[in-house]
Amino acid sequence: MARYQAILAYDGSGFQGSQRQANVRTVQGEFENALRTLNWPARSVILSGRTDTGVHAAGQVVAFDLEWAHPADTLLNALNANLPHDLAVRSLSLASPDFHPRFDAVSRKYRYRLFCDAVRDPLRERFLWRVHPPVTQRGDFLTQNAGVFIGTHDFAAFGSPTMPKGTTVRTVTQSEWRQMPDGEWQYEVRADAFLYRMVRRLVFAQVFLAQGRSSAADIQRALSKQEKFPAGLAPAHGLTLVEVMYGSNDPI
To answer: What pTM does this model have?
Structure first.
């Protein structure tokens, strides 16, 4: 019996989140179904973290134990042959017997994508949040203010703890926006860990600011004093888990 680690990519549109739940379609559930076709004997795989309903991933990390007498690339192909079209194993390798995708991770990176348009665009809106009024009506507020989240802060105003009575302190090492040539805006944020819905709250707060509905001081007060910030979440379909890092190297 050996432990394997794999990187999963999925279109979250058709999943009720990553974590297995009864009677609904989830990433974990579909992956475990594929493993069972290969005589996998265990009851549960281990994910690096959970993504909510509608959230996508390019770098979800999963670990599982399996008796497999062939090279790892044949296991990757066998799994992909049994996975649905919106879920794939992008890479796979042997791992140390005690590897834990969640507890061994040192950072996680998310990307949020949006565009500004007064008119609906169904094709772009599958993976991007359509925002109107535009985020540029107060100049370059997105890029100017994103850095306020960098550092160690109590993010209680921007998310919920991942366990009862858990800490809401997180350390953010990257928080930046960039505008693409086609007008798309991308927000990338990296931290040691994230609260539930933290990235979507951070995006909402920054869009709210850029549209002139709040001030930079409101965000600062929410960070420093945990004051309430106006309720709201950026939609899930604009969010992607990009990668999970382990030490100074990629997970695989």
So the answer is: 0.94
